Amino acid sequence: MRLGRTGEQLRIHTSSFDPSNGMTTIVAVRHGETTWNRKRRVQGWAPAPLTDRGRAQADRLGVALAKGYDIDRVLSSDLSRTEETVAVLRDHVDAPVTYESAWRERDVGVHQGVSVEEMSERFPEYDLAESGPGAARRRPESGESLADVRERVIERWEKALEECEPIETVLVVTHGGPIRLLLGHLKDLDIVETILEQSQGNCSINEFEFDHETGAVRIVRENDTGHC
């Protein structure tokens, strides 16, 4: 079942899917605003807590999810900001939760905590706009490349599709990077387009329908923040 409310950034992808066929709904959401989001610092795996605004966003997201979906189970990144978001969501969503490292944001290694502006100025070799596809393959010291993260996320996504049941609704609580990489994969975008041409607001909703008969996935909602 999908939400009826339309956010300002909602994108609908039309298809000839027949809802009478047994399909799985997967809803991917980003965590609430953190202190480092507000300060525009590169977070990686840092334990940055949600702000008051971030907790309020998560609460409104929980209300929207409860109204729009009958969620059977939750898959979540095991980083602290997603765990904190899940804790708020569970005031509204009664479903078992599994925390997994596969849904984590990119590990930025030694660059963790650097401001977004400083990152671009001091390390242009990691800037997709400046260095193009090569930047997607570069690994910061003790960190991951964007290509590494895409491989990790898509591998877990494909496994999730294998594990899901028809007429099941699965909620994935994750981060902006993994959601954009997943959307880029489904749209057949390269990593540069994936990151530079897409955005994900805090507590955005993204909805996918998986047809078990054909193996096809349809993007139903994308970066919907109308509830926030």
List keywords for this structure.
228 residues; six-stranded mixed beta sheet; 37% helix
What does this structure look like?
The protein is α/β, with parallel strands linked by helices and 228 residues long. Helix content is 37%, strand content 17%. The protein is built from nine helices and six strands; from the N terminus they run βααβαβααααβααββ. It has helices at 35-39, 52-68, 80-89, 116-122, 128-131, 133-137, 146-163, 176-187, 191-196, and strands at 23-30, 73-77, 97-100, 169-174, 205-211, 217-224. A six-stranded mixed beta sheet has the order 3-2-4-1-5-6, with helices on both faces. Helix 2 packs across helix 3 (80-89). The model is unreliable at 1-20 (pLDDT under 50).
Q: Decide which structural class fits the backbone.
A: alpha/beta
**How many E strands?**
6
Which oligomeric state applies? Answer: single chain
Termini separation: 20 Å
Sum up the overall morphology in one term: globular
